[in-house]
Amino acid sequence: MDLFSIVIIVAGLCLFEVISSIDNAIINAEVLSTMQAKARRWFLLWGLIIAVFLIRGLLPWLIVWLATPSLGPIQALTATFSSDSRVLEAVEKSSPMLLIGGGVFLIFLFFHWLFLESKNFGLRGEKFFYKNGV
């Protein structure tokens, strides 16, 4: 992998993380505005711990470990920081399952937005699809 590819990948991941964080901050601010001070502190403390450490830290490790059972838990953790060809091969073999899982999640998320959330219509034909989709 050349340096240009590495820079593009890192920049894309940084951009995605910034956009996701801003979206998350907006949602959190809306939720926090309806809470009392004690509940706000609890939400911010435990929400931060759960979001940063569990979801962004342990969940990817758990997914890689479960998707590649040939790797042990320690090898799955060190696979992130390693360039071992055996680890790379094991993760590449399990990539179809990982991609299918991510794709199914995104499809369900899209269907939830399409059929269950209330809409503000801006384009011609949106009301028709909304009325007939529910």
Task: Report on the architecture of this protein.
The chain is an all-alpha fold. The model has no long low-confidence stretch (mean pLDDT 82). The protein has two domains: 1-34; 36-133, no CATH class. Helix content is 79%, strand content 0%. The protein is extended and about 50 Å long. The protein has helices at residues 3-32, 37-67, 73-78, 85-115, 126-133.
Q: Any key phrases for this structure?
A:
134 residues, mainly alpha, 5 helices, extended
Topology of this structure?
Blueprint: H1 3-32, H2 37-67, H3 73-78, H4 85-115, H5 126-133
What does this entry show, briefly?
By secondary structure, the chain is mostly helical.
Mean pLDDT: 82
* Multimeric organization: single chain
Strand content: under 5%
Protein structure class: mainly alpha
Q: Can you write the helix and strand succession as a string?
A: HHHHH
Radius of gyration: 20 Å
The biggest beta sheet is recorded as: none
Q: Give the distance, in angstroms, between the N- and C-terminal Cα atoms.
A: 47 Å
Approximate helicity band: over 70%
Number of domains: 2
> How many beta-strand runs?
0
Q: Which word captures the global form? A: extended
